[in-house]
Design brief:
alpha+beta, three-stranded antiparallel β-sheet, two-stranded antiparallel ribbon, 6 helices, about 20% strand, globular
């Protein structure tokens, strides 16, 4: 879909929001939507976002679906999942669902518009945050154990470093290099 290529190449959605507690900048789904609206008009496209609640095991996930339609009716679609927290200080259950929806929508939009939301892997903050996950991957003894780790961290499945460490460890296990 040529319109999507144009939108992806022109879209600028900087991280203008600030989390002072965590000391990091971020972009919200609303920031992405505001940045993409003029490009949608320019390309004569329509964007829709839908949420579904999906039970997986004993937990509930919000499945957000971002769909882009062009004038000819062609479409591109991306899904993203976010798990509802059982409780969150200062939030009632509807607020938890709303926050989870916003999170899932943001990642569906990131996927559709090729927005890289990963931290710079060279920063000390990234290294500190990623250390437990990378350590778990490096410590896996079987492919099944490795897949359990992969499935446990869906938000890291697009992270370049995580994928590289995962792939390398998988090859080592398959080649008998424990």
């Amino acid at each position: 879909m040529k319109e999507l290529i144009e939108i992806q190449s022109k879209l600028k959605a900087p991280k203008n929001q600030r989390n002072n507690f965590g000391k990091y900048n971020y972009r919200s789904a609303e920031d992405i939507l505001e940045a993409v609206k003029p490009l949608l008009k320019e390309q004569s496209c329509i964007l829709t976002i839908e949420d579904d609640i999906v039970p997986i095991g004993e937990r509930y996930y919000i499945k957000a679906t971002a769909t882009l339609y062009n004038e000819k009716g062609s479409m591109a679609q991306v899904h993203a999942f976010a798990r509802e927290a059982e409780t969150k200080a200062g939030m009632d259950v509807s607020q938890i669902t709303g926050a989870t929806s916003s999170y899932a929508r943001k990642y569906a939009l990131n996927g559709l518009f090729a927005i890289d939301d990963n931290k710079d892997t060279d920063t000390p903050e990234y290294q500190q945050a990623a250390a437990p996950y990378l350590s778990a991957v490096k410590g896996a003894k079987t492919v099944a154990e490795l897949m359990t780790i992969w499935n446990k961290f869906p938000n890291l499945q697009t992270d370049k470093t995580f994928k590289e460490v995962f792939s390398l460890r998988k090859q080592e296990i398959e080649n008998g290099q424990h």
